[in-house]
Amino acid sequence: MNGSTDLVEKLVGYVRSGVSSLDNGVEAVIIPPALYIRDVKSLASDQLSVGVQNVACWESGAYTGEVSAGMAKDCGCRYALVGHSERRQLFAETDAAVAEKVAQLLSQGLVAIVCVGETLAEREAGQAEEIVSAQVRKGLASVSAGDWQNVVVAYEPVWAIGTGKTATADDAQAMHQSIRGVLRNLGAPADTISLLYGGSVKADNAAALFAQPDIDGGLIGGASLIGKDFVSICQAMPAGSES
């Protein structure tokens, strides 16, 4: 929940210029608060996609304050976050709700970026892989064979978000490898699904993270508010990745 019209104009303009020189296989996505989607869309280039931070479990109806997947599509969004750690922690969003939102997005042909991740307590208890695997299975249980192309999974260890702590590249790779195995067990084309890492990614650690074989891109938090830092992270991407 950050932004203003002034920030949109300055940030999107800077990022648009910065990503114009990236390899054609690298895609950058800006996911602003819903009120600024049209502003971002109007300033974005073909290489800069737009998403929404959350959608409702319902197609339409008496749900004041909610934004539907169809509305997001109508405003020009291609992507949507689902199950972000803050939604899970602050708004009690469950795996069942995540699954319903994924279904809504896929019905509209949008790409669902499904966020999963464990807390510090869960990691210290040795439950990290179990927790994350369950979130993946439950959140994506109803995805049909033809819809996997519109699914992205973002691993965001809760203990590494906004704390300055970051999982080591090896730790992140191990969890991504586990997630890919869960996807394979679900019958998904696991090797073609993008897996993003989202835990305090910065310009100085991005290259090491993105060099891992199962880390296909990043879900960037605080660093995305600083144009220079976000562009530097995008430039750390190997060809064919997402940020």
From TrEMBL:
The keyword Nucleotide-binding does not apply. Gene3D superfamilies: Aldolase class I. Pfam families: TIM. One of its GO terms (biological process) is glyceraldehyde-3-phosphate biosynthetic process. It catalyses: D-glyceraldehyde 3-phosphate = dihydroxyacetone phosphate. Substrate binds at residues 162, 200, 221-222. Pathway: Carbohydrate degradation; glycolysis; D-glyceraldehyde 3-phosphate from glycerone phosphate: step 1/1; Carbohydrate metabolism; erythritol degradation; Carbohydrate biosynthesis; gluconeogenesis. Its EC number is 5.3.1.1. Keywords: Cytoplasm, Gluconeogenesis, Glycolysis, Isomerase. The active site is at 84 (electrophile), 156 (proton acceptor). One of its GO terms (cellular component) is cytosol. Belongs to the triosephosphate isomerase family. Involved in the gluconeogenesis. Catalyzes stereospecifically the conversion of dihydroxyacetone phosphate (DHAP) to D-glyceraldehyde-3-phosphate (G3P). This is Triosephosphate isomerase. The lineage of its organism: Bacteria, Pseudomonadati, Pseudomonadota, Gammaproteobacteria, Pseudomonadales.
